[in-house]
Amino acid sequence: MSGRNIFLAAPISGFQEKKEYEDYRLMLTNLIAFLRENGHTVYSEIENVYDDTCYDSPGKSAMDDFSKISECDTFLMLHPKRMQTSTFIELGYACAKSKKLVIVGDMKDLPYLAQGLEESERDARIINQSDLNEVVFEWINDIMME
Q: How far apart are CA 44 and CA 8, in angstroms?
């Protein structure tokens, strides 16, 4: 199987400290590079947003994200901790568009309905892990290759 066309959703705001976001963003850019090295196409706004001051308008962001989600075959959501985030709106849109879903996050930190997606959706996987590391990168890639 060739690589997947992935929309990677991850929180950009909601972190307590700038350093926490910077460390998280670095890990995400490493994951994106890893996925691309394994033959996947990845879209993530995280590559364009360095901090919480360089967002597009809410309307433009919604239009762009929904367009990219419509074009992808796989929706990958990273949820590092319990937090309010627009990724839940993107997840709902991906569900409505019947995309393959891969969610990485601690199950207890996911919204109630998201916790049940593996059981209710034919093509949904949850990696019950809040930390991103090389092992999790491999798990994500293995799921993408299914």
A: 5
Split at pLDDT 50, 70, 90, the class of 43 is very high
Question: What span, in angstroms and rounded, lies between the C-alpha atoms of 66 and 94?
Answer: 8
Structure tokens at 24: 């998280």
pLDDT per residue as tens digits for the range 80-101: 877 677 888 899 999 999 999 9
